[in-house]
Amino acid sequence: MSAYAIFLRDQMLDQAEYDRYLQLVAPSLANYNGEMLVFNDAIEALEGAPADGSVVIKFPDMATARAWYNGPEYAPYRDIRINATVGRAVLVEGLAG
């Protein structure tokens, strides 16, 4: 069953560092079969607080998504994102089928 890492950015703190993060992070997905589905700064809030950016990454399953997030390929870049933005990150399981 597929899984998705969803990042919602509430506030940009350091655009230059975030741009550096984006350049570095993409290769970290390869060993985990991660596929970036959404990378979009245009968000329309239908309910709740608006966000100013989002990323959705698809993985084969939750175990693989967790392994990427906690793994050595992504770990050096996670802190760059956390320090450059204010936001939320969640893992969600997809539907079977």
UniProtKB/TrEMBL annotation:
By its UniProt entry, which InterPro entries does this protein fall under? Dimeric_a/b-barrel, DUF1330
Q: What Gene3D superfamilies does this protein's entry cite?
A: 3.30.70.100
Residue span(s) of domain DUF1330? 2-95
Which Pfam family would be a valid example here? Answer: DUF1330
SUPFAM superfamilies assigned to the protein according to its UniProt record, in alphabetical order: Dimeric alpha+beta barrel
The record's annotation in PANTHER family points to:
BLR0684 PROTEIN, PTHR41521
Protein's name according to its UniProt entry: Uncharacterized conserved protein
UniProt source species:
Bergeriella denitrificans (Neisseria denitrificans)
